[in-house]
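Working notes for the structural subgroup meeting. M.R. asked for a predicted model of this chain before we commit to crystallization trials. I am recording the input and output together here so anyone reviewing the notebook later can reproduce the run.

Input as submitted:
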Amino acid sequence: MTTVTTTAATAERETPMSSRVRTGEIWRIVRLLTVNPSIFFGIPWLILGAAWAVTMIIALIIQGAGASTADMQEGFRYSWAVLSPQWYLVAVGVQAVAFTFSFALGFGSTRRDYWLGLSAMFVFVAAEMAVAIATLVQLEKATNGWGIGAGMFDTLWYGQSGWAFDFFSTFALQLFVLFVGAGATTVYMRWRVRGMMILFFSFVALVLALIAAFTFTNSWPAVMSWFAAIGLLGVFTLTLVAALVSAVAGFLVIRRATPR
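Returned structure, recorded in token form:
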């Protein structure tokens, strides 16, 4: 019996992803991930709500000091408060795999079904937040900064290119941080601390090598020109591609991860 089980598990790890999609199993993983819905749908909005409240208080203080609405809106343009949930969502990606992978496999889910269910959940969370934030940007613009010239959502690149672009950029960014967190956790589950150390130092080495290459070849102007040429749409398209690469890499690693 043990031999049969081991052989089946090995076959699952070695067999490439087939075209057959078990919708019921995938939906079961989604339900497993939403056992505590506040992790995905409560805390991110609590963080965003707290950032909004702080922004409103700051706006009222600045307004009370006599600043004009135009000056306030220009100053708030550089606020990063709208991105406050991103750092938490990295942790969500980590926790989603670390706390549910072993449990899901123990109840008979395959690694493929687990990763597809996790991916579906990530797509839903990213889309939900992207719709809401893109809509709040338009609402903030329509109310002239909630009536006091405050800037919480209509900041950075938001509010410049319409609802569709705000949705796309938010969706790409949310998906990226979720899959980066999940993908890094699969490395830990496969190779433990040694794998994480290799991943971290490899990333640092790559970044330093690129900085050195661009510096010694005087390529920074060309790099900046390239980013200017592709624009924000190109940047967030690359972000979405990076999210998809992280998703595929995470699946390839988790196929051979050992739950403990």
